[in-house]
Amino acid sequence: MDVKSAFLNGYIKEEVYVEQPPGFEDFENPNHVYKLRKALYGLKQAPRSWYKRLSEFLVRKGFSRGKVNSTLFIKSSNEDKLYVQIYVDDIIFGSTNPMLCKEFSKIMQEEFEMSMMGELTYFLGLQVKQTKDKIFIHQSKYCNDFLKKFKMLDYKDAATPMATNCYLDLDDNGKNVDQKIYRGMIGSLLYHTANRPDIMHSVCLCARFHSTPKESHLTAVKRILKYLKGTKGLGLWYPSGTNIFLTSYSNSDFGGCKLDRKNTSGTCHLLGSSLISWHSKKQACVALSTTEAEYIAAGSCCAQSLWIKSQLEDYVVNIDDILIYSKSREEHAGHLRIVVEIRREHQLFGKRSKCEFLLDEVQFLGHVIFAQGISLDPAKVEAVLKWERST
């Protein structure tokens, strides 16, 4: 559903005055101004006042805010749940009981002027196809639109988003290209990574050179576009009835950036068999070894896993064990310190959580407790510390 003229519904506390608009002049007092009681589009207070008006209304109707996401509202009715997600004036909602959806639509139409869109098929550029046992999310329309915008529809398809031997640098002697076009391509591609993890690394790599793009950089970006041209129909597939467990993977290169020799971390997180989160990001420091690079990647992966776990609690999905896989055997010793440091930096995770780090032949289970640090099984810790010497 969509709220018509959403920002005009918010009330403002600050004193804001506007000139008399054409057609609404007071001819007896032509030099007077109007004092606003409600927000207008263009005011910096408008988004906040609209959110306050909407959230207060929903709370009065029995909703509660999400613990992590303040734009998520939840209402319980016996065994059923109604979830409402707000994005400015666009609202999506769903429930295990269709009657709760009908009741929500009714109270919203009574309070605000609404446009009902029916079953969710399109949201913020994402196309959603729902069936009884699965949901498929893709951006084929959005992809086709920006391919047409950048005149790439007639190009030959590429098999991969990036060549295996592609090592981009500043290319100081290269030919300059139009910054506006290059940045437009990067911006479109970054939004497209919302449901295309296969282009995440290549897009983020090309984005590093948006300040002074060269012809070599543009060639790499065009290869991504040619790859997308042949794979427009790809998207994310979410089947129903899968087991709910959280699995995370982390990886890192070593000295991959030619400019500063920093490494790039990559992580992905699966709920059951479905991919729900991913990222590719250059690390903030220079690692002295592959072990250190993998350690940094595993640390960020752990932090994201704990955030996802907290988010899932709003959906009554309680995750006890988080499995984090990393490729390097050497990093097992560093894992003993990861959870402690993550807990020190991210104090918002107040409940006990268990992080189980699995390697090929070693595993340990740590109980992270709110303020007391970490409590580990001594036998498992000893096995991990001696693993390298015992092989």
Helix content: 25-40%
Terminal-residue CA separation: 61 Å
Low-confidence stretches: 342-376, 387-391
Number of strands: 19
Percent strand equals: 15-25%
Strand order of the largest sheet: 15-14-13-16-17-18-19
CATH class of the largest domain: Alpha Beta
Detailed description of the structure:
- This protein is an alpha+beta fold.
- The chain has 3 domains: 2-118, no CATH class; 137-230, no CATH class; 243-390, 2-Layer Sandwich (Nucleotidyltransferase, domain 5), CATH 3.30.420.
- It contains 10 helices and 19 strands.
- It has helices at 46-60, 98-111, 140-149, 179-192, 200-207, 215-230, 290-313, 332-345, 378-385, 387-390, and strands spanning 2-3, 17-18, 34-35, 64-65, 72-77, 80-87, 90-95, 114-115, 122-123, 126-130, 134-138, 235-239, 246-252, 264-271, 274-282, 321-326, 353-358, 363-369, 373-376.
- The strands form 5 sheets. The protein has a 7-stranded mixed β-sheet. Strands 4-5-6-7 form a 4-stranded antiparallel β-sheet, with helices on one face. Strands 9-10-11-12 form a 4-stranded antiparallel β-sheet.
- Helix 4 (179-192) packs antiparallel against helix 5 (200-207).
- The longest helix is centred in the last third of the chain and has 24 residues, at 290-313.
- Residues 342-376 and 387-391 have low confidence and may be disordered.
- InterPro entries: DNA/RNA_pol_sf, Rev_trsase/Diguanyl_cyclase, RT_dom, RVT_2.
- Residues 315-369 form the Reverse transcriptase domain.
- Residues 1-163 form the Reverse transcriptase Ty1/copia-type domain.
